[in-house]
């Protein structure tokens, strides 16, 4: 009997384990936000992915310092065995409009991915002519996963092209 209950006990203990990753992701985002408000360019770069770092040169530092900080309301791991998190925020400067930022592990450190974050919130925008146009957004690893899942779900092609 004890040998049968051991695997069940291990499963229950694993389910009770606390995932500290979302808390670390919130902390990484909060550090980035503090660096933004201080106008500390080098600290901001250190808290961004390599792909996001060029954005720092274009930031409106005075405007950012005058804005109230975003309110972090939660964070969650995107996939079970990945170091990718979505940090949910509310913007007090925009009537508490919700937003979401991507935090990933890069070179052993949790950093903010502004490129992937922009991809999460990309929307169709109207040009001056009233025509709809789509703003480009980088594909995220989750997008590639969905593309691959779709490809695998398709029936095999029939011989002869039909």
Explained architecture:
The protein has helices spanning 2-16, 21-38, 41-46, 61-66, 114-121, 141-153; strands at residues 71-77, 84-91, 97-106, 109-113, 124-126, 132-134. It has one domain: Roll (Nuclear Transport Factor 2, Chain: A), CATH 3.10.450. A hairpin with a 6-residue loop joins β1 (71-77) and β2. It is 41% helix and 22% strand. The protein has six helices and six strands. The strands form two sheets. A four-stranded antiparallel β-sheet has the order 1-2-3-4, sandwiched between helices. A two-stranded antiparallel sheet has the order 5-6.
The total count of helices amounts to 6
CATH architecture: Roll
- One letter per element, helices H and strands E, the order comes to HHHHEEEEHEEH
Give the uncertain stretches in residue-range form: none
Q: What kind of oligomer do you see?
A: single chain
The CATH class name reads: Alpha Beta
Distance between the termini: 57 Å
| Sheet with the most strands: spatial strand order | 1-2-3-4
- Shape by Cα distribution: globular
Q: Approximately what portion of the residues adopt beta-strand conformation?
A: 15-25%
The averaged pLDDT comes out at 83
Q: Structural class of the helices, strands and pairings?
A: alpha+beta
Largest sheet: 4 strands, antiparallel
CATH topology name, in short, is Nuclear Transport Factor 2, Chain: A
Specify Rg, calculated over alpha carbons.
21 Å
Total number of beta strands? 6
Count of spatially separate domains: 1
Helix content: 40-55%
